[in-house]
From TrEMBL:
This is Torso-like protein. Residues 1-18 form the signal peptide. It comes from Papilio machaon (Old World swallowtail butterfly). Keywords: Signal. It comes from the Eukaryota.
Length: 340
């Protein structure tokens, strides 16, 4: 009797240690997370928008801090180093929802068309606007937006095929016991082993600024950019279309990693003077390569620039079980999305 009791304790201890060693909080490609654990506030465990931490703690901020678990034992991935220089993008957004969708365009969560809601869905409108550097507005869709950002990619990682991967033994046992016809049983499984695995991610940093436009000015800017792209002309009147005549508000410069040292540098060194106005503007970097090089040196690897999450279908050899599990995950995603 004592022997069997000892054996049971030994096996349980080994299993618990195995699961414990597979838990992590950093960016681990192929590992699984429970999207619902922090749905609506994933920005608290991922560095995706400007944060308000103190400057002395900036070095301790990690791009990804969500609990994740290793479910596959033999995965492989491809890693590509990023560009050595920042790249400027001018992105046109018809509505405030378009602005949020555009900001999170490199984030994909299988089962939802609005991944930004997983990160900011629980935030009140005032908090979101502060993170984007603009003033609170009760009717944000009465105007249009332009997101200007300069991005520096540190690395991109993509998971290889999961066709021949091996699932951890303790996960297999949990799957064998799982009753996919019982939604509550599936949700208990999600809490233990997750809903999605990390299929890809991009780290680096980017600095961004939101310009709020009158609709007439926005339409003129859009037409100008379209014509410039078609003509591929060397003439550049871009600065004219960012003048006060067309704008309702110039947002503050923000940085995705939340590094206040870089934000302060940008506010001090990127001032643009037009007529009687002087304000920080990222467009200075478009015309001043020396400042662009200086900023390039300041940008670190403190932000998550992209993330791809896929449902845990590959865990299940039984196609019916896989479909039932994915259906419950995706239905829950839609409910959470509507309520966020």
């Amino acid at each position: 009797m004592t022997f069997w009791l000892f054996l049971a304790v030994f096996l349980c201890g080994g299993l618990c240690q195995s699961e414990e060693s597979d838990l992590g909080y950093g960016l681990n490609i192929g590992n699984a997370i429970d999207v619902f654990a922090n749905y609506g506030d994933l920005s608290q465990v991922t560095q995706v928008v400007s944060a308000d931490y103190e400057e002395e703690n900036a070095e301790h901020v990690e791009p990804f801090r969500e609990k994740n678990i290793r479910l596959f034992s033999n995965i492989s991935s491809r890693q590509v180093s990023g560009d050595t220089m920042i790249d400027m993008n001018i992105l046109l957004c018809e509505t405030f929802d378009d602005l949020l969708a555009t900001y999170f365009e490199n984030f994909r969560i299988e089962g939802t068309d609005k991944p930004w809601k997983a990160f900011l869905g629980d935030w009140i409108l005032d908090e979101i606007m502060r993170a984007f550097g603009i003033e609170y507005d009760t009717k944000p869709d009465n105007c249009c937006y332009v997101l200007v950002k300069l991005m520096k990619v540190h690395k991109s990682v993509q998971l290889d095929s999961l066709d021949n991967v091996t699932v951890k033994d303790y996960v297999k046992r949990a799957i064998d016991k799982l009753n996919v016809s019982d939604a509550s049983d599936v949700r208990r499984f999600m809490k233990s082993y997750g809903t999605h695995y990390i299929d890809s991610y991009v780290t680096g940093n980017f600095i961004y600024q939101v310009f709020k436009y009158k609709r007439t000015g926005y339409n003129l800017l859009r037409a100008y950019i379209r014509q410039r792209n078609m003509r591929q002309s060397s003439s550049d009147n871009l600065r004219f279309y960012f003048s006060s005549y067309f704008l309702k508000q110039v947002g503050e410069i923000r940085i995705a990693s939340g590094n206040k040292t870089v934000e302060t540098w940008a506010k001090t060194n990127l001032r643009d003077s037009q007529y009687l106005y002087s304000r920080p503007s990222l467009l200075r970097l478009h015309y001043n390569p020396i400042l662009a090089f200086k900023l390039n040196d300041l940008l670190d690897n403190g932000a998550l620039l992209g993330l791809g999450l896929k449902t845990l279908r590959p865990l299940f050899k039984d196609r019916h079980k896989a479909d039932m599990f994915a259906e419950i995950v995706e239905n829950d995603m839609k409910l959470w999305e509507v309520n966020a």
